[in-house]
Fold this protein.
Amino acid sequence: MDQLEQFLQQHPDIEIFEVLLHDLNGIQRGKWLPRKQITKLFDGGYKMPQTTCSLDSWGRDLEELITATGDTDGICTADINTLALVPWADRPTAQIIVSMGSFSGDEPYLGDCRVVLNNILKRFDKLGLTPVVASEMEFHLFELDRDRFGAPQHSQRALDGSPALGGQTYGLDAMRDAAPLMDAINNAAKIQNLPVDTLITEFGPSQFEINLYHQDCALRACDQGSMLKRAIRQVASSHDRVASFMAKPFTDQVGNGMHIHFSLIDSQGNNVFDNGTDTGSELLNQAVAGCLETMGDSMAIFAPNINSYRRMVPGCYAPLAPNWGYENRTTAIRIPGGDHRAIRIEHRVAGADANIYLTVAVMLAGVLHGIENKLSAPEAVEGDAGDVEALLPHFWNDAIKAFEKSEFIRDALGSELQRTYAQSKRMEKHEFDSRVTLMEYDAYL
C-alpha cells in the first residue's frame, strides 16, 4: 500500500482508476473506479464475474460456462507494479492490471491468462532459472474512415492517391512523415514506464514496428507488451488514425507478426544458453527442440482467429513449419547472431493479434518440455525454409482440434484454460461459418 499512497500523493488530481482484466483474446476488460474507492481494490473488495476471462472477441459470455458455474464472481488482485497514468484520457486517470481469483480470493483462477503464465514461471523458479523476455510488435496505421466496402484505407499513399507500393522498410523519411504520431506514442510510453527500444517502418505500406527492451520478469514483459498495444491504439485514435494489430488486413500484402525473444538466466544472472560459442549450449538445443515439438498443439494460441490463418501462407514472412536456424528469418525459430553472451531464441510464429500472455506462456512451456525431457533439435535449416510441406495446422479448425486434444496443453496451461479457450474459439468460429460473405454473392448470386 506504500506504493499506492505515494502514487496518490504524487498525483492528487487523479479522478478515475481504470481497472484492467485480460480475457482469453488479450482484450482489456474492467471497470472505472473513482479515486475514493481505489483502496477497495487492495482490500479484497473488488469482484468481477470469472466468466469475464473467457469472453469472446465480441464480448459475449460462454453459455456452457455460465450454466456450469452460475456465473460466479471472483475476487480480483491488483498488481501494484502496473499502476500508471493514462495520458490520453480526457480526465486525470490512472490504470492498473488485476488477475482473477476464486470467490473467496484464496486461490487464483486458472482460466486467467496472467495466472496461467505465472504458474509456468513458478516451474522455472523450481529449476533455478528465470526467463528473460522481449517482444516486437508489428501494426498498421490506417485512415480513420474505411472505404465504401468497409475495408481499411492506408495512411501511406503514392502521389496518385493509391496505396504506397511498400512501407519503405527502415525508411527514415517515412518515419519523419509519421513523426507527430510516433513522437506522441513514444511520449505516452515514457509516461507509462513502457521501455520502448526501437521504432521502425516495416515492409508493408502503413506498417510499423515497435520493440520493447527485454525484462527479467516475463509477466512484466507481457504487461508492458499489452499496455503498449493499448497506448498505440489510443494515441493513434487521438491523431485521427486507426492502429490495427490484425494479422492480415489485406490479401495481397504482408501481415502483422509478434516476435518474442527470450533467453534463460541462472541464479547468478548467467545466460544458460551461452557456452562460449556461436552455436549455444545443450540447454539451448533442448529448448529449441521443445518449442518445435509443441508448436503444432499451440497454433490455436499463436493464430487465434479466422484472419490469423490468412497470414500463414507463402510469401508473407510467416513460418509454415516447425523448423529453426541460425540468423535465418525464414524459419519458425531463429537464433539471432551477435555477441554469444546475448544468445537467445526468437520465436516468429505468433501474429500481432495473439494474446501475449498465452503466447509467452505456451512458448516457455515448450522450453520446459524440451529441457525436462532432454529433447534434441533436428538439424538447423540453412537458406530458405519456405519450400517445405506445411506441417503446422494451416486451418483454424485443425488448430482448435489439436489444442483441445493436446496433453501438453492440458498439463502446461491447465484443463480450465484448455476448455474455456477451445469453447470460446469454437463459438467465435461458428459465427464466421454461418455468415454469408460478399464473395459468395459475387460467385453465386
User: Anything to note?
Assistant: Residues 218-238 form the longest helix (21 residues).
